[in-house]
């Protein structure tokens, strides 16, 4: 492969690097401003705060009931990841291994929640959950988040399942493996990288999901991102440092989840496995 080293190519690469650097610096500057302000005693018209304190974190913890909010967030994330994994992997296996009338329509139905903005179907969904008495509860928030999460797992897992030669499953059944043994001893080890990668992305998506959670959450079922929104826009006067402290907690929680998850799975496995030819 011959690499273009002409002036136009060099200018293009320099422009790309300049835009990338500008984006990174802008992002880092915004994060740094929020973090610094969360520790600032007073910060007006100067490059750095006049002093630093940690009292805003204690204030945010008490004022916004962050302890309860974090517990709810962990519960919602755990339940969404668990249920979407069980339903999504099962549905993906059925779609990957079976042909039936209307299969294309089913695939389209799975695609719609991912292609359509959440607010578009979030309002009718919230209306249904309110009529069913589930809105405002923990399970209402979980059900709302499952609508885009299950299709996401299905679409991620189908390529992984299609790469497994059906003859491997047939051979396992010939040697007496039942459905449970077939899944636990044959399919699960082969699908584990894909399952972990899909659930990692569902985890991050659920933590950051605002629209659907906002529409169905109640006072005792708010996740951290919704509580942060209310802290910013609800009536009343609040110290900007307390709100920034809450934002830092939100960023820290997301980062911790990501670091823990990335110790077990690399998201690029989705692309790597998709490029591998299926065994014959």
UniProtKB/TrEMBL annotation:
Pfam families to which the protein is assigned, alphabetical: BPD_transp_1 (PF00528)
GO biological process, one term: transmembrane transport
Entry membrane topology: Multi-pass membrane protein
Cell location: Cell inner membrane; Cell membrane
Domain ABC transmembrane type-1: 70-261
Main location: membrane
Annotated TM spans: 12-40, 69-96, 108-132, 138-161, 182-208, 214-233, 245-265
Keywords annotated in UniProt: Cell inner membrane, Cell membrane, Membrane, Transmembrane, Transmembrane helix, Transport
CDD domains given in the database record: TM_PBP2
InterPro entries, alphabetized: MetI-like (IPR000515), MetI-like_sf (IPR035906)
Cellular component GO terms, alphabetical: plasma membrane
Family designation: Belongs to the binding-protein-dependent transport system permease family.
Name recorded for this polypeptide: ABC transporter permease
Originating species: Methylobacterium variabile
